[in-house]
Amino acid sequence: MDEKNFDEISQEIIALLDAKKYMYARDKILGLQEVDMAEALEEVIERLGIEYAVILFRMLPKDVSAEVFSYLPTDDQLAVINVITDKEIKYIIDELDFDDMIDVLEELPANIVDKILEKSTKEERKQINTFLNYPDDSAGSLMTPDYISLQKDWTVGDALAHIKRVGMDSETVYTCYVKDRGRKLIGIVSLRTLVVSDADRPLADIINEDVICTNVYADQENVSEMFKKYGYLAIPVVDNEMRLVGIITVDDIFGVIEEEYNEDFERMAGVLDSSDAEYLDIGVFKHVRNRLPWLALLMVSAMLTGGIIRSFETLLSSVISLAVYLPMLMGTGGNSGSQSATLIIRGMAVGDIEMRDALRVFWKELRVSFTVGLMLSALNMVKILFLDREDIWVAATVCISMVVIVTMAKCIGGMLPMLAKRVGIDPALMAAPMISSLTDLVSCLTYFTLASVVLRL
Amino acid sequence: MDEKNFDEISQEIIALLDAKKYMYARDKILGLQEVDMAEALEEVIERLGIEYAVILFRMLPKDVSAEVFSYLPTDDQLAVINVITDKEIKYIIDELDFDDMIDVLEELPANIVDKILEKSTKEERKQINTFLNYPDDSAGSLMTPDYISLQKDWTVGDALAHIKRVGMDSETVYTCYVKDRGRKLIGIVSLRTLVVSDADRPLADIINEDVICTNVYADQENVSEMFKKYGYLAIPVVDNEMRLVGIITVDDIFGVIEEEYNEDFERMAGVLDSSDAEYLDIGVFKHVRNRLPWLALLMVSAMLTGGIIRSFETLLSSVISLAVYLPMLMGTGGNSGSQSATLIIRGMAVGDIEMRDALRVFWKELRVSFTVGLMLSALNMVKILFLDREDIWVAATVCISMVVIVTMAKCIGGMLPMLAKRVGIDPALMAAPMISSLTDLVSCLTYFTLASVVLRL
After folding, report:
1. Strand bridging mode B234-238 / B214-215
2. Predicted TM-score of the model (pTM)
3. Do A286 and A402 lie in a common domain?
4. Range of the structural domain that residue A335 is part of
5. What is the interface pTM, i.e. ipTM, of the complex?
6. Which of A33, A233, A442, B352 could staple B347 via S-S, CB 3.0–4.6 A?
7. Contacts of B33 in chain A (CB under 8 A)
8. Do the chains contact at B163 and A326, CB–CB below 8 Å?
């Protein structure tokens, strides 16, 4: 089913609900995958209001409704919870996968969480509280305790019988975990290996003891790097004593990757991390707070550029047309530097460029920038002489400045992210805003210094 | 094993090879996972040269060496192929997973590919050629034909016996595909369902016929969106007649996601798509070609800004200190606009912001920018009056301009990506370089117009 198809179906559902043909709307939505049902419900909430959405939501089969709920965005989950009964809330929470349940509980107001936990056993409450306490960006916050655990002294047949008994409640059955008496992880065995092995073979023969695992407090970025590198479907999570506490499955990693990339995009635009809240959900003052610090800092740098101009005021007032070419030189310098910075920042992020490549990067940027600078200069020479009909010496000043500025800008853009990494600053901060502020300074200084030499003033 | 640990081991391997203690080096590298072995080999190639790497490579067990080979970057694969014998090449190619083999063949020179294909059967050659011909960014280029295919009239027991027979050669056994006589895909069944079902149950009872699949010519970006959305481990690929031609597994999607993000990063920095080549592997002239077009285009826009300054030359020459504040106003305008543009571009990319949110975005940017503008103005007022000791009217001009410029810049930055999407241009092109060039124009015009009004010249 493609996007267009889905849009049509969700329009039909809205029309049916609006016409109070609830049963037809229900039949329509049940033809979708759960994640698409959630998207359709979102549309209903937005277009018709939460009441209509809850009518439809209540008509879904119970187990489907819990899964659909887990795919709703947080604000819509809260809206639904505010309308349905406590009993219904409890039912949804019970039906959710453990890790989805934790995600939901984290977002709910404390009084509702308490009400839900009241009905759980003491053991459950303890486990839930442990999971709720893992830091936001840790492996612990991503994991689920619903995995298949096997005994070392079993046979393949025992293992398969065990999976048959408990398999449907686990998040994944495709990697099974073998623990010793002290809950220490001693190896893994894949369902593929179990299925192709003879039933009476001892598990000990086929266990893979060379296990890649992660610590419960590891940064989620490291976890997603492991998934990318090894291509596994699940990675076990252990505590500091190497005891298995949960697993992370590959489907939960896509969200992490998206979050990490967005963080980079925002840093590269001089916006403070907006955590993972949606743009429209963030209030005006939070937006102001996220953007003001960098703008103010860069403004100070731009004031220095102004200071340079002030020191050349006499020169400028005698050749006022110098000011005409200043925006072009500063703009081109900034853009040149930003291009290089982005390529280097990304190259380092994906591991194509290492610190030891610094000299090679410098040499490449030097040649690229000199070529680019010469070509842009040639364009300018023609324009200034024949279109603007300026003095040859002004043209010469602008063109020589262009080559020098582009070359310096690209070398600064290429080197600064590497320097930042060296001293432990996130290279992503050395992107467009920072680089163009710095190159503005350099551009102004270069231009006016060259002008005072060339124009012999 | 963490990064630090790996670095140590690869240093040890290099030291051992350098001391010609090959067997020790071999034992050391065999303690690693295959993907880490490949990384260690890369280091060896870089530090000691290809000859040492090939000595080590040849000492690996045959099946391991093929997998390690598949993880090497393309240029290192070519380096290895140039040194080893044709027989060894043929062996590696045969051992590779089908999709990895296609990836390798695509990069090899035609004469080597011909030599390899010579020894294949006619049937194999035909299939390889079909796969080699799928467009670079299509689902077809990502898929593998190594999947488990089942017959509808089998029982669960038959299916499991079949998997036991052929399972080890498939890329994944966790989703099995059921086809009719005409090779049309009619449903899927997961290994989990097979394992928890009774052996004599007919497959027809447990097949899921509601299959999400993709066309062989679908864009890889759409395929990665499907994986993100549905969280599946594999997605079947069909041709235009709905015949199953292959499957794409989740581990091949991480590379696609990275490629797509990097494309966005590059577009947002005004760099043309560098395909998926590494920065250092791209030649100087290719780099120039990738960067020059946007720089030249934006330079023309900056020339227009210069034109505005020229038209205010008289004003500028009578109040020369106006020039001092120009870089700060243009810089802050550009940075403000870029912040907004990035947030909107990313918000649209991840689906948080839809076209119908345009008014809400505008309203939010208006309030945020007005607040930010006022605060930056206040800072400037103090600085200009007390530090620069400028005329109150110059200070007023700069401060009013600041509020107007930041507000306009943020609204342009917020709206332009949405407008681009509306008319079918990639919103990512409306990022820092483009936005700051446009805001430079607007900033200059605003500043000088306000100056001529306020200073009554």
Report:
1. parallel
2. 0.79
3. yes
4. 279-454
5. 0.78
6. B352
7. 210, 212, 230
8. no
